[in-house]
Specification:
Layout lengths: L2 H10 L2 H7 L3 H16 L3 E2 L16 E2 L11 H16 L2 H20 L5 H14 L5 E2 L2 E2 L8 H8 L10 H44 L3 E5 L5 E4 L1 H7 L16 H12 L5 E10 L2 E11 L7 E7 L1 H15 L9 H12 L7 E8 L2 H8 L1 H18 L5 E6 L2 E7 L3 H16 L2 E4 L2 E4 L2 E7 L7 H17 L4 E4 L5 H22 L2 E7 L1 E2 L7 E10 L5 E2 L1 H10 L3 H18 L1 H6 E7 L2 H4 L2 H13 L1 H4 L2 E6 H6 L1 H11 L5 E7 L5 H5 L6 E4 L11 H17 L2 E4 L5 H10 L3 E2 L8 E2 L11 H4 L1
Parallel strand pairs: 15-16, 19-21, 21-22, 22-23, 23-24, 24-25, 25-26
Antiparallel strand pairs: 1-2, 3-4, 5-6, 5-9, 7-8, 8-9, 10-12, 10-15, 11-12, 13-14, 17-19, 17-27, 18-26, 19-20
Length: 753
């Protein structure tokens, strides 16, 4: 081989020279595949290995980590490149033929050379040095490697082989001549052919991948027409090649799609998407359309479409359930309040009325027939209400057995007619559950919707207040709200008081008072007293218990008040042990709500266990009404407190028709006679007879009698003569702050008089 040929081949080993000889084909391939991988969001490696120290060179192409989620659609560009490369290869057909002949010559030469000769060893070492693991040697012979992709490098590598054996000179000259004439061109042509086949295979793979992707994909041109689409797109969207993307959308959604396409084409975002409804047949589907650049040269966009109809369906379903009652299907409180809020904020809103309804004796149905029966009743009432209101009126379930009605275009007269019809029709509704008949009736409150109201809760509270009054007036009736109604005024006072109670509990704005209970018959040295409660206002004045205690019962705050009283009384006792030891009995009231509250009873037990030295002086009072209506709970309270040393008193005794009968069941220590039998005991023979009977019964059943409302000495003396043990009232002692109580000996009340 001449020096010129050797230098030429050495310079051909560099990447730049090889790229030049292949007419920039590799650059074109690299650009196209890089763009493809960019769209595929995958990692690609297009590597042309640098020349090693031994002048080896092995161009290779490897694509790895291909994402299956997206696909590029630039197959036309691949076809153009393939056509260009095919043309180059066809123009070098003669070279390829020479290459095949050369391979045959190599094979022939190997068969003529003994494996042991230096000539064969030199060939083997040369090929091994340039090809590495791609050379296969059997018993010292080199296997023909024309099928290996790097065969062109074999040709170049052989040009550097030096055969020193004289017997091989003729063969050596043959190889040098062939390589000088065709070696580099043959190598270049063969590499072009190999890359062309590789691209063709990749094109087929991506075509198959693109066609079978489970996501709809399409290529969109600059006019927003479909150029290419895969199988899923054709089935899902019924696109036709050349059809405009906007043809599938409703006119109202065109602007959204235009904005999305503009954002991508102008480079504001590399990828953007929008969700639009598309009507296919008789059904409307929601699709998420994502767009990104395909080839910037053609300004085409790759569109990927995902069917999100199910997500929208689930969202609508969740929205419905969040705004509707699961049992009845009616709008719930949240939806109802939203409608009221919309009405309040609408300056052109029509005149309207709001009604609150409450099922009477609903708890009785649950208790007697179970909650399943209660649910069935609620469903039946819901259906009847929708039938009884006017067209366009809204019926909602606000919770439990409470319903709300929003009556549009309604004045007071129209609302009253609706209320009258509902009360009458529901009272005639017959509800049966497993042969048990239940009477159905409702209490209903109606209020005119005031557009000037501060908020919707002002309107709702008016309807609620009217509903409460209807229930208190005897149920199965309706009440229309009027701000001048004295009943409404009283109820509002209680509602305001309930707010004050909550604040007073949080800020500790209550104060304990006491009222002495004096012995009438026997002289006792120990103090007897009842603990009373006052709520302190910001100006230091007191709120009457006649206001805040009914409010506490109405708004479920009584148990919290009972806790506060007991807790603070025990704290005072532990801080004033000297006075506490002078007390024989200190009486504390328990509300009916606390009596029925298991959590409260558990708290009471634990709190009393903490103060064992104080407990024996305590006496808990429960009203006769609470004890009779919750007999089991009252019995449980006695069983709980008796072992601790506490005493029990039955308050307001005699107000019920069966008072005496329950004394046999309730093992109490004291009975407090209802004040209505005490105030006229000196003049009313019936009152005197009742008091006398209670006193006689106390002897037989071993309990002591306390008379309330002792407003004069005359009453006290009369009670003493009838056998009453203790008296309590303003004539004996007015309520005083507990903090003012001091220790010391006190004279009996009647003795002082």
């Amino acid at each position: 081989m001449t020096e010129t040929t050797s230098q030429l081949l050495k310079s051909a080993l560099t990447p730049n020279a090889l790229v030049e000889q292949s007419n920039s084909s590799i650059m074109i391939i690299d650009e196209v595949l890089a763009l493809l991988c960019k769209q595929l969001n995958c990692n690609a490696v297009f590597a042309i290995k640098n020349c090693h120290s031994n002048n080896t060179f092995s161009p290779s192409l490897d694509i790895v980590d291909t994402s299956y989620n997206t696909v590029a659609s630039h197959f036309n560009d691949f076809r153009n490149i393939q056509a260009e490369m095919t043309h180059k290869i066809e123009s070098n057909v003669a070279f390829i033929d020479q290459l095949l002949s050369l391979n045959e010559a190599i094979s022939f030469h190997q068969s003529q050379v003994s494996p042991a000769t230096p000539q064969a060893t030199e060939i083997t070492n040369t090929l091994t040095r340039f090809l590495g693991d791609e050379v296969v040697i059997h018993h010292g012979e080199v296997t023909p490697v024309i099928e290996v992709g790097n065969v062109s490098m074999i040709l170049i590598g052989l040009s550097f082989a030096e055969f020193t054996t004289e017997s091989a000179n003729s063969s050596n000259c043959f190889w040098q001549a062939k390589l000088e004439e065709h070696g580099f061109q043959l190598a270049s042509a063969f590499e072009l052919q190999r890359l062309s086949l590789l691209i063709d295979n990749k094109e087929k793979q991506y075509q198959e991948l693109f066609s079978n992707l489970p996501m709809a994909c399409a290529l969109i041109d600059v006019k927003n027409n479909v150029v290419i689409q895969n199988n899923v797109s054709e089935v899902m969207l019924s696109f036709e090649i050349g059809q405009s993307l906007f043809d599938l959308l409703h006119r109202d959604d065109h602007e959204l799609l235009k904005d999305t396409l503009h954002i991508v084409r102008e480079g504001v975002l590399r990828q953007a998407w929008c969700e639009v409804p598309i009507k296919i047949g008789f059904n409307t589907h929601w699709y998420k359309m994502s767009f990104c650049h395909a080839l910037n040269v053609h300004k085409q966009l790759l569109m990927m479409v995902e069917d999100v109809t199910e997500r929208y369906r689930l969202a609508d379903e969740l929205t419905f359930h969040s705004n509707h009652d699961a049992l009845t299907g009616l709008p719930n409180r949240l939806q109802f309040e939203g409608m009221l809020d919309e009405l309040l904020n609408n300056e052109d809103a029509p005149q309207a009325c709001v009604a609150f309804l409450d099922l009477d004796q609903f708890q009785v149905v649950n208790d007697l027939s179970g909650h399943q029966a209660g649910d069935e009743l609620l469903q039946q009432v819901s259906k009847r209400l929708k039938q009884l209101v006017r067209k366009g009126d809204i019926v909602a379930r606000l919770g439990g057995d409470e319903f709300g009605i929003l009556m549009y275009y309604s004045d007071k007269s129209a609302a009253q007619q609706v209320a009258k019809r509902i009360c009458q029709q529901l009272s005639e509704h017959e509800f049966r559950w497993k042969k048990v008949k239940h009477n159905v009736s409702i209490s209903m409150g109606v209020a005119t919707f005031n557009p000037a109201a501060a908020d919707i809760y002002e309107v709702m509270s008016q309807a609620d207040a009217a509903c409460r009054l209807a229930k208190e007036d005897g149920r199965n009736r309706w009440h229309y709200f009027s701000p001048d109604d004295p009943q409404i005024h009283s109820l509002y006072s209680q509602m305001v008081a309930s707010v004050d109670i909550t604040g007073a509990l949080a800020l500790n704005q209550f104060e304990l008072f006491y009222q002495l209970i004096e012995p009438l018959e026997k002289n006792e040295s120990g103090l007897h007293m009842e603990i009373l409660l006052r709520m302190v206002q910001e100006d230091g004045t007191y709120v009457s218990p006649a206001i805040f205690l009914p409010a506490a019962e109405r708004y479920n705050l009584a148990s919290k008040i009972d806790r506060w009283v007991i807790d603070n009384l025990l704290k005072w006792g532990s801080e004033n042990l000297k006075i506490w030891h002078e007390i024989s009995m200190v009486s504390v009231n328990l509300s009916a709500m606390s009596l029925a509250d298991k959590k409260f009873m558990g708290w009471l037990e634990m709190r009393l266990m903490v103060e064992p030295e104080l407990v024996s002086k305590l006496c808990f009072e429960i009203t006769e009404t609470a004890a009779v209506s919750q007999l089991d709970q009252a019995t449980a309270l006695i069983d709980l407190l008796r072992p601790m040393g506490c005493k029990l008193a039955l308050d307001d005794f005699g107000s019920g028709f069966s008072s005496f009968a329950y004394l046999k069941t309730l093992d109490v220590d004291f009975v407090k006679i209802d004040g209505q039998f005490v105030v006229n005991v000196c003049s009313d023979r019936s009152d005197k007879a009742i008091v006398s009977a209670i006193c006689q019964l106390s002897i037989d059943m071993d309990f002591e009698v306390i008379a309330e409302f002792v407003e004069s000495t005359e009453i006290g003396i009369k009670l003493k003569s009838l056998g009453v043990d203790y008296g309590q009232g303003y004539a004996i002692n007015k309520p005083c702050p507990l903090a003012s109580l001091t220790s010391g000996v006190r004279e009996p009340w009647l003795a002082v008089r």
